[in-house]
Structures are given as C-alpha cells and as structure tokens.
Design a protein that fits this description.
It is built from four helices and no strands. The chain is flat, with a radius of gyration of 18 Å. The chain has one domain (3-103): MazG-like (Helix Hairpins, Orthogonal Bundle), CATH 1.10.287. It has helices at residues 3-21, 27-48, 59-83, 88-95.
Length: 109
C-alpha cells in the first residue's frame, strides 16, 4: 500500500467515525484529536516502562496498547496533514532526508 492509499483509507475510517458520532472534523478537531492521541501514547509509554500503574493489564496487553497508540498517533498525523494539504513525504524529505549521508556534500579538503 502506498502512502496516498493509506491516507485515503484512514480518511474513510475517520469520516465514518465522525458521522457515526456526530463529530465535526474541523481544523481544531484534527489538532486536538492528535493531541489527545499523543497523551494516550504517553500514558501507554509510562505503563510500558513501569513509570505508571499497570491498571491490572498484563505485559502483553501493555505492549499491545503501546503499539496501538503509536498507530493512532501515526494515523492522526496523516489525517492532519491531509486536512491541510501537506505532502508528508515531501516535507520529510525537505526537513529530514536532506541531511542523509548519501546527500551530504563532500567536506572541504
């Protein structure tokens, strides 16, 4: 699956969720929902690292929850970017990959 197909499928799921729950997905919602998901990922990380109570969950459940929260944050990043017309791969290329060693200019001798 390519990124644009993934973004479309995430949009389909998010739109259905919003319609089912009577949620208006405006610019504020995309940003605040991402913030909520990052908070949930933080809680899952704290549980995973023993810095928060386990709430009776097994280590497997804690690990599964951590993975699920990473997926939520990733999905909501893509939804936020799509909402604002951001080319995520282009932005990553511009911001991060320009520093990749294969693109580095040779050092002055």
């Amino acid at each position: 699956m390519d990124l644009s197909q993934l973004e479309q499928e995430l949009e389909d799921v998010s739109e259905r969720y919003a319609r089912t729950n009577g949620i208006e997905r405006d610019s504020n919602w995309y940003t605040l929902k991402l913030h909520e998901e990052v908070g949930e990922l933080t809680q899952a990380y704290l549980m995973k690292t023993g810095q928060a109570r386990s709430k009776g969950l097994s280590q497997v459940e804690i690990e599964d929850n951590f993975k699920a929260e990473i997926a939520d944050v990733f999905a909501h990043i893509l939804l936020l970017a799509r909402h604002h017309g951001v080319d995520v791969l282009g932005a990553v290329d511009d911001k991060w990959l320009r520093w990749h060693p294969s693109r580095a200019e040779p050092a002055n001798s």
